[in-house]
């Protein structure tokens, strides 16, 4: 049956794609074999992230971008990620209904992702589904996130190109947005730009861009443990000075609901992708993504090997009374637990 | 110097508390010894979480609650957690200024926490700072979170009692809030209840409470790996049926800005704490917290031992070309990496 899935997937059957994504998303039996197979076939798709505050019109813009790519004969995958769910699960559903015409197109594959068991899991799940879509042969992958929190930043880092979508109303809060969104943006969109304040917002973004170097912070390794996160600022400066023709993020105006400016975004994304390829940044970003991916898989495997083991869980339960009495600390118990787990942690399953 | 810090801390010097929290928050040298010392002294403080959507008036309510406890002669620690930062770091600062009279009180200790390196880190950091405050002898710890996302849920789980703060305007979205906030709430507050819609919101919450069993989902183990997260719903049902006199979350009205209803909240929190003690739920929750704490420390230690090791990082760099070429997958490389790391992972540092 699993052989059959792989064969159907390789033959480009859309039902096999849906099933493969389900297997991967739920980490069902065979998901490692599936992702392993997918890994060797990735690298063709262009991965585009769309991030911004709620109400900025990201879904409408995503649908517009999707239609533009379809008109060029390209196939499109859309991953809509809502890290705030289960708390605000309603918003995304509305967005999906608005995209209905796109959803019925056989050249489009849409998947929604909400919070999985663990928090770190969302960007990991996004990466995995991107790999499956990429391996299936999808030309463009649009990753839409609902909000502007830390999880969205992590997800944006999984894309080749990051589009930050703002609206004239964002102007008031742009100072507070600066630290996060400004640093990941490859392209800025001032959406709903037929409203008052669009020019002012555009100016503010451009002033802010003048204040920073050409390289974005995302071109340095992610924070993993103490050492990997050290000297991030220094590395960013070095990256900028090495790279004479640094990318200056354009600030584009759109009215996504009227399909205005979408062609300009498509053009800017193409230009950005050519820049990524020519400058070597694409290779660097993909290498960073692979490094982070291995780190994720290592940590996930270690976690599963430890906590899926009944003996480990039983051992921990038996230590709880000591802990409650204050005769042991979480640190001494953790040391003991790791000390007894060498076989478990290092045994390839 | 470190001996001196421990001595000053034990002597109840407030400067030592501030320094101890800094050491713990930044995981500086000696933080394990400090938390180990703190661990044996915890268990006295009552930990109260305040969660709800932005704009619900949580900070004003937190300040009011703090004043009420101070009037009773109790000392108070306040931890304000903003998981959305660095994106919206502005909000919390404003809230802190509004609490200024409270901040100047020597019987009050306030600490703000924003996103740390890794995501899971925030609830872990909150727990650690709670332990330090508890060990220092603080009577009440108020944990205020800014939003209603998954991180806030994790943080709310670290408290003994969880207060969910809503406003009449929340009524429209209460269906979508249900899945998350409803399940962690021990007490509901309808704040700004002098506005229209307060009665309607209260009714809606009470209808919703009628639809669920008495036990809250938080009384079952957290999701760690596949096995621990299984059968959560079943365990919640069992917990409910075991516990005949289940706690029914009261729905209270407040106007925090006028200090109305705060006394009622203090009374409800006292009543809830007595219920927790009498029913054995306090013991269960604290045991769950200890179990989760060990899991956190184990995972954090494993991560640091792996990624702080220059040899491991070098080994991973050398495997990247194979990965890029598709000759290896993240899964095979992860297996190899763990297989070579037995000594590293199990060696007590």
**H/E element order of chain A:** HHHEHEHHEHEHEHEHHHEHHHHH
CATH topology (fold) name of the largest domain in chain A:
Rossmann fold
What low-confidence regions of chain A span 5 or more consecutive residues with pLDDT below 50?
A: 85-91, 212-217, 219-238
The assigned CATH architecture of the largest domain in chain A is 3-Layer(aba) Sandwich
Identify the biggest protein-protein contact and residues per side: A-B, 86 and 85 residues
- Gross morphology of chain A is globular
The largest beta-sheet of chain A arranges its strands as 3-2-4-1-5-6-7
Structurally, the number of domains of chain A stands at 3
- Multimer state: homodimer
Strand content of chain A: 5-15%
Structural class of chain A: alpha/beta
Specify the CATH class of the largest domain in chain A: Alpha Beta
**How many angstroms separate the termini of chain A?**
21 Å
Mean pLDDT over the full residue set of chain A: 82
Radius of gyration based on Cα positions of chain A: 22 Å
What share of residues of chain A is helical?
55-70%
Total of helices of chain A? 17
How is the biggest beta sheet of chain A arranged?
Answer: 7 strands, parallel
CATH superfamily of the largest domain in chain A: P-loop containing nucleotide triphosphate hydrolases
Please count the beta strands of chain A (DSSP E, at least 2 residues each). Answer: 7
